[in-house]
Amino acid sequence: MKYMQLGNTGMKISECALGTWAIGGDWGQRDDKEALRAIDVAIESGVNFFDTADVYGSGHSEELLAEATKGREESIYIATKFIRMGDITDPANYSEAQIRTYLENSLKRLNREQIDLFQVHCAPFNMLKETDLFPILDKLKQEGKIRAYGVSVETVDEGLFVLDQTNASALQVIFNVLRQKPQDVLFPKAKEQNVGILARVPLASGLLTGKYTADTTFSSDDHRHYNRDGQAFNVGETFGGLPFQKGVALANEVAWIAEERGNLARASLKWILENDAVTSVIPGFRNVKQVQDNLAAVDEKGYSAEEMARLEEFYWTKVHQHIRGAY
Asked: What confidence score (pLDDT) does residue 29 get?
């Protein structure tokens, strides 16, 4: 496991971290005991960074992380996100009083005195531009309530705005073999400005595990069922914005990358790890086996220049035009 500097924060975080959406909720059945075991295995394997949000199970994933990291607060970094507990289209949701409430609630659930990385959770572009959100975050950082702040964005344009107009230390972006656009302009600029990149949805909501067929179904409480076409939130968060059946077909077309790399999931994560602008990749998990499989990606075979070029051409010629929503 390598440890990468997260922007200008002074935090060195594991190149493969873990996201906790699935253990909080919205991915079907969950098992808290297994989730806690999985977090322990991750920490024992060198993971020192976890990404969560106040809306993951209405704070449940934050509470699980508090339990799992008790007594290890100085060595385990936690990034959480805020804003989506309220109406993300209402300017009042971005007031100092409301943001402080979100912060205090997360601190309480995490049982910590400071948030390592406090991230804006996919706010609409106009709210990023038109509210006092970032001066408020600067103030919270000066007060020591947060160590640093970042922004989880849906589009490249939002990311470029954050780089140009704010003091954010990190950007969280959707990035995977089937969602390559950010590496063209956004990543080089972030690297130049010493802003960290956290790669989310790295397995395209499971498409890049190779487990699904066009006939696969999901439970009614799984976002891969109820947000399949963006009915509940941005369509890009589910299957990276691809229509499910098209996504299955495209994932099958890149199955060749798994040769000599264990399986498609490990190969897909390794592809992200090969990008030197990415600070850490944050795959989700629900059990010990998934954690172990995700972490095994760091030791898999790297990619040749020819393979990277082949995947880039594949994206632009066969995938890009099928992605829905702003990106």
From this structure: 74
CA dihedral 199, 200, 203, 207 (to 10 degrees): -140
Residues 90, 175, 9, 124: what is their CA dihedral angle, to the nearest 10 degrees?
-10
Q: Is residue 239 part of a domain?
A: yes
Question: Angle formed by the axes of helices 133-143 and 96-110, to 10°?
Answer: 50
- Is 327 inside a domain boundary? no
Q: C-alpha angle 272/192/126, rounded to 5°? A: 85
- According to DSSP, the residues that pair with 202 across neighbouring strands are none
Collapsing DSSP states into helix, strand and coil, what is residue 216? coil
Nearest to 239, CA basis, from 208, 216, 272: 208
Number of structural domains found in the chain = 1
- Give the range of the structural domain holding residue 173, as residue numbers without chain letter: 3-322
Task: Compute the average pLDDT of residues 16-27.
Answer: 88
What's the whole-model pTM score? 0.96
Residue 180 lies in a domain: yes
Closest-CA residue to 15 (of 236, 264, 202) = 202
For residue 119, the SS3 value is strand
Nearest-10 crossing angle of helices 264-273, 288-295: 50
Q: Is the pLDDT of residue 36 over 90?
A: yes
For residue 196, the cross-strand partners are: 170
pLDDT of residue 137: 98
Higher pLDDT, 221 or 170: 170
Distance of CA 271 to the CA centre of its chain: 16
pLDDT tens across 194-219, in order?
A: 999 999 999 999 999 999 999 999 99
